[in-house]
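just leaving the lab so this will be short. below you get a single protein, a line of residues and a line of whole numbers that encode the local backbone shape. id like you to explain what the token line says about the fold, in plain words if possible. thanks a lot i owe you, the record is right below:

…
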Amino acid sequence: MPSRPSDEVLANDPAVTPVVSTLPPPPESQNPVRREVRLDRVLDFVSFVAKPMPLSVLLDEAPKRIAAIVQAEIVSLYLLEGDGDALVLRGNVGFPVGARGTVRMSVGEGLTGTAVATRRPVAVVKAPGDQRWRAFPFIDEDRYPVFLAVPILGFDRVLGAIVVQRAGDKAYRPSDVRLLVALTAPIASAIRHAEVLRELRDKKLRRTGGGTRKVTLPGVPSVPGRSLGAVAALRRPATSPQRKATGEDPKLLRGAWSAAEKALSALVARAGKLGLSREAAFLSTYELMIGDLRLRQRASELVAEGHGVAQALGLVAREGVRAANGIVGDPFLQERARDMEDLCDALVMLASPDARAELPTKAVLIGDRLTVFDLVVSARTHPVGVVLSERASDPRTPVLLRLLGLPSITQVEGLFQWASPGDVVLLDADHGFLVINPSRAEMATLRAERKKGKAPPDVSETTEAEVESDPME
């Protein structure tokens, strides 16, 4: 039977170079007590990952336990997503919370991408000086130059990578490399999310209404938090109002105008408190329009002529669009025309709500874009979260989401392919996932966090009749 290769032999293996093997052994290998502590931590980790658990728990807890085992200050868990060519940091200990879901790289890019592309560990003592290094300045990881990346291997493909980092100049030993490789095996079996990504790549379409099949969709976290609710698509009032004019319309218009003024003032004040006054400067356009006496008089004139509130405001909006389109190529006026349409839609819903555009309460809202209309109108239904598709490219979107202040993720591909109104979903904006038809284990975990004060207080409860999904294996 061949003998096991020594650490020195492994150190010269190009698969793990440049691990340095000439350093003295770590303290735990000299001290029997410390050696037992490390073994206890490994056994605790193996026992932990063998348990059924939601993906969010794995992403939160696995990095913490690995950090204790290998004495690392930073541990990151990357998952392979998209068409199998994108590595996304989903679990981490040591970096700011905002790193999860936003640190991304391609397979083959950076030291982590190299480990995944070659399916072999990569270890470096001074990572920022390596030519393969991919820097992310906003997480300031140059402070932790001692670097080790190990791919997470599945049955027929790579699922992601584990990266450990620490300060100083003492390299991770080959024994650390072997141990971390071994620890990826139970992680691979616990990543349920990988099967979802495979389904998306295979383009298995889901019928509208989708049934009770569990699906996990990845996105980019915008506002952290977790919530549970039923899906509702963002809506706008109909372009052809069916409500006829009544003698109450002038009063309704005045009330709507007053409510919109108060809502916009509140948004501007909130932007100031959040330090977003500069980014939210576009709100001044809405304030100017709602304070424009000519606009208000024009709407009042149309109502006095016998038009209903919705019809009058629709005419005002169309007049603004025609004026903007009359000056070809003026992007400022065209944007202002869209803002006017948005404001008029809000006034319509405040004055004479369109039942077809009303949203259920305590819902997770999904859509392609978010506008000031949603902060003035949709927010009145007390939604518990927002999920936007990959078509949400408006630069205002991140600001509007922060002003709304609900758990939210963006850039969710295939959102309308998989999610339908009425589906029960768990929004995990801490890691950047939308779980459609979550398991009972996932819902129980969220409720437990809520009791401990870790979840938002307005997360809606789900009755047993709302979802019948199998527990995680």
In short: The longest helix spans residues 249-273. Residues 16 and 122 are 5 Å apart (CA to CA). Residues 4-11, 14-29, 196-203, 457-473 have pLDDT under 50 and may be disordered. The radius of gyration is 27 Å.
